[in-house]
Write a structure and sequence with these properties.
It is a single chain. By secondary structure, this protein is mainly α. The protein has one domain (about 30-300). Helix content is about 60%, strand content about 0%. The protein is globular.
């Protein structure tokens, strides 16, 4: 952990020692405002952390799964965002997300990950299991978002009179709206908890240094003195001025004309609710299969 992150972590710990709130029925995700950190077509790390936060408040998650993830919260958090570290580490999407844009998703990406990297079934610790569980949740979220939003609404559907670049711009408006909303809703424990995670050879396709770097990059935006970088990153991807994106986000008429008339807010809310349920279901499947297998690595580390 860098000295800057350490000092800001100390400041954060003085202001908040809060733990996740007790579980209740999950609050559906719905649209709000905008801003934070990465990937071009998929939800940002802040949105993934918000989904994680909802999972920890979801009564549908079994008590054994909840207790495991709660005990190993920092690892679960890092796993839920680490796939997007490919942006900083320079590896392809197929290496970290196990499918490529424009190609059919013939197999659940998380199952393909486990099939391609059998070492991930040889869990080293309870923290390692929670980290992989977070990774599974991330891949499930991105898969569902691709299948229910990006492909049908932006790739396959014609928007009469709208150029491809403008559709791409509109997609980034949705992502920043979600991102800014979710950053504002992240609870105070998120940043200091994430910053404490110490990976120990958890991935065969990404180094611990890369994992720590992404941990510090995301946590640093959330800790005291940090600031979201989403708008600047998206502007760079769009080869646009951040002010142009900000103006569209803040102008209800422009937002209606270039986004909501094509992707209504009700549709976005329904897709996000479906994405969340799919993520929870895939996470539950992974944990149930892992914890119940009699000869599994989970058994060897004393988890069943």
């Amino acid at each position: 952990m860098t000295p800057i992150i350490l000092s800001r972590l100390r400041e954060s710990s003085v202001n908040s020692g809060a733990a996740p709130k007790p579980r209740s029925k999950a609050i559906p995700l719905s649209p709000g405002r905008a801003s934070a950190s990465t990937i071009s077509l998929m939800p940002t790390p802040f949105t993934h952390l918000r989904i994680l936060q909802n999972l920890l408040a979801d009564e549908a998650l079994s008590p054994p799964c909840y207790k495991l993830l709660r005990r190993q919260l920092p690892a679960f958090q890092l796993g839920s965002i680490i796939a997007d570290a490919r942006v900083a580490s320079g590896v392809g999407r197929d290496v970290t997300h196990f499918y490529a844009y424009g190609q059919p998703i013939a197999e659940r990406p998380w199952r393909k990950m486990l099939r391609c990297h059998r070492a991930l079934k040889e869990l080293k610790s309870e923290a390692h299991l929670a980290f992989i569980a977070g990774y599974v949740a991330h891949l499930a979220t991105d898969e569902a978002w691709a299948l229910k939003m990006v492909r049908p609404q932006f790739w396959q559907r014609d928007w009469p009179g709208v150029a491809r670049r403008d559709k791409f711009f509109a997609l980034h408006l949705i992502l920043t709206l979600m991102d800014e909303r979710d950053e504002a809703l992240l609870e105070d424990w998120q940043a200091p908890s994430l910053a404490q995670c110490e990976p120990q050879g958890w991935l065969p396709f990404m180094t611990d240094d890369a994992l720590r770097g992404w941990r510090d990059y995301v946590a640093g935006q959330l800790l005291p003195g940090g600031a979201s970088e989403t708008l600047a990153i998206f502007a760079s991807r769009l080869r646009s001025d951040p002010a142009e994106i900000r103006a569209a986000l803040d102008d209800r008429t422009q937002l209606q004309n270039c986004l909501w008339r094509y992707v209504p807010q009700g549709l976005l809310a329904a897709v996000e609710e479906w994405v969340y349920a799919f993520t929870r279901d895939q996470l539950t499947i992974y944990l149930s299969e892992t914890l119940s297998a009699p000869a599994s690595a989970a058994a060897r580390i004393g988890l069943n």
